[in-house]
């Protein structure tokens, strides 16, 4: 018992003893909800799983944001009209004539953007704790589908206000699909529901955004949770690795886990409310298909791809590179690893060092490559007789692949003893590079998509 208490204090610090002791018949104020809650959670969870830094509450935050989106979205539906001549005016009505309309729109907007960021952080947490190894492999794939669904939900919602920002961001993004080899034009037409961004696009995006996507996300989320539960909860280091007892000490879910989830949810809701009160969701002039803004940018989460378009031939920028990256990420759990260990942050000390080295490499290489490509490198000019797909596609891609292979080789030589660390470093390098490309596209591109200082003139 004394040993149990010591571990308990060490792991969680603040857990109250009373409810932890299974079978103690004390008064339970949550009794009325116990049945409901225990449909989602098991009766007891390992103490180690309660430690905040194990999950940072990120999966739970995604749930809260999804609920906020569903509730605020339902309210917006009462006034919004999905037709080009009415959509913009209906959003103006929401903002100016409906009581708390602006606030509801802001909550919807900020929850949607936070959801992308938080789901991405959740993905990072799962990856860097190795929580994608057996028995959780397929849940990683479900997670990636969820993340894609979140991006698509955000994208379809982006068009709905029908202002200049929305119209041109969607036109730019669907335009990128045209470069996909062979099926490009058909995919673009399918995404737009016709030859151009128009009433059919708006109605289709609205239907996807308000019915198909949320319903699919909800179903997938339940499946995701069910698989977490089937896997025995979140990944924790196994007893032998942690050098602790064979059977991990457990804590009652109620109130320990549920209380912690409640606190995280309340703090998150407070943050979203505060941001929504201070910052209004953007709304530009009404869409004008004849007047494109300069620069015309895709939504921020696609800016990494738009930035790639400035450096690679479109077939590589919008198709080959993103598809390869996407497939690699989906296959993460199915690659060959020397050790399949879940629950330890960054796998090992060497893994952490390799990850830091990857981050520093990306922070140096990506901006340098962008600037070099802007001012010095000009493959199409140097090899004017070659087709652009080779001079502007194959050549820079070849350079990039050489850089990646050299990086992996150096990491393997210097830090890694098993291939887990090299794989983790490679994942970090690619991810940080993509984030840097996105940041460049969002903040460092001005008129004509030339390089510019953010907020400067
Ligand atoms: C709507 C989006 C998502 C929701 C609501 C969600 C929710 C959750 C929750 C509540 C958990 C358990 C506790 C926690 O980690 O906080 C979890 C675990 C997990 N999630 Fe997600 N998630 C989402 C997206 C993703 C994404 C994008 C990935 C990555 C590809 C992912 C992969 C996983 C995996 C593999 C686990 C098990 C981790 C473990 O056992 O430690 N999820 N998710």
Automatic annotation (TrEMBL):
The keyword Membrane applies. Keywords: Membrane, Transmembrane, Transmembrane helix. The chain crosses the membrane at residues 56-80, 107-128, 140-160, 200-223, 257-279, 312-335, 356-377, 389-411, 423-444. Residues 11-237 form the Cytochrome b/b6 N-terminal region profile domain. PROSITE patterns: CYTB_NTER (PS51002). This is Cytochrome b/b6 N-terminal region profile domain-containing protein. The lineage of its organism: Bacteria, Pseudomonadati, Thermodesulfobacteriota, Desulfobacteria, Desulfobacterales.
């Amino acid at each position: 018992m004394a040993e149990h208490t010591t571990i308990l204090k060490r792991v969680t610090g603040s857990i109250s003893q009373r409810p932890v002791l299974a079978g103690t018949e004390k008064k339970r104020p949550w009794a009325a909800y116990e049945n409901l809650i225990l449909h989602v959670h098991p009766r007891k969870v390992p103490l180690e799983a309660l430690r905040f830094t194990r999950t940072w509450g990120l999966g739970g935050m995604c749930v809260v944001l999804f609920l906020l989106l569903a509730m605020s979205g339902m309210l917006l539906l009462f006034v919004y009209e999905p037709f080009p001549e009415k959509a913009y005016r209906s959003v103006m009505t929401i903002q100016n004539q409906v009581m708390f309309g602006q606030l509801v729109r802001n909550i919807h907007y900020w929850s949607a953007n936070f959801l992308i960021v938080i789901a991405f952080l959740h993905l990072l947490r799962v990856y860097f704790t190795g929580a994608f190894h057996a028995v959780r492999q397929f849940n990683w794939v479900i997670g990636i589908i969820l993340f894609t669904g979140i991006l698509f939900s955000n994208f379809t919602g982006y068009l709905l206000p029908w202002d200049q920002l929305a119209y041109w961001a969607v036109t730019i993004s669907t335009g990128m699909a045209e470069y996909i080899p062979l099926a490009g034009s058909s995919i673009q037409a399918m995404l737009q529901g016709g030859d151009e961004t128009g009433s059919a696009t708006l109605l289709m995006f609205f239907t996807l955004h308000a019915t198909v996507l949320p319903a699919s996300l909800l179903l997938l989320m339940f499946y995701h949770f069910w698989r977490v539960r089937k896997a025995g909860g979140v990944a924790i280091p196994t007893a032998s690795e942690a050098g602790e007892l064979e059977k991990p000490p457990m804590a009652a879910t109620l109130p320990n886990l549920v209380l912690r989830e409640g606190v995280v949810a309340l703090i998150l809701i407070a943050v979203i409310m505060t941001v929504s009160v201070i910052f209004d969701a953007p709304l530009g002039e009404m869409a004008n298909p004849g007047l494109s803004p300069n620069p015309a940018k895709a939504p921020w989460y696609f800016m990494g791809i738009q930035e790639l378009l400035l450096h690679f031939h479109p077939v590589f920028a919008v198709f080959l590179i993103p598809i390869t990256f996407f497939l690699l990420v989906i296959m993460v759990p199915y690659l060959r690893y020397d050790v399949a260990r879940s629950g330890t942050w960054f796998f090992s000390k060497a893994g952490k060092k390799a990850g830091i080295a990857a981050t520093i490499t990306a922070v140096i290489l990506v901006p340098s490559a962008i600037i070099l490509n802007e001012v010095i490198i000009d493959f199409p000019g140097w090899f004017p007789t070659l087709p652009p797909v080779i001079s502007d596609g194959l050549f820079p891609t070849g350079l990039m692949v050489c850089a990646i292979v050299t990086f992996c080789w150096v990491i393997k030589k210097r830090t890694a003893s098993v291939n887990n660390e090299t794989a983790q470093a490679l994942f970090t390098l690619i991810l940080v590079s993509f984030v840097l490309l996105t940041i460049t596209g969002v903040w460092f591109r001005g008129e004509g998509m030339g390089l510019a200082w953010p907020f400067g003139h």
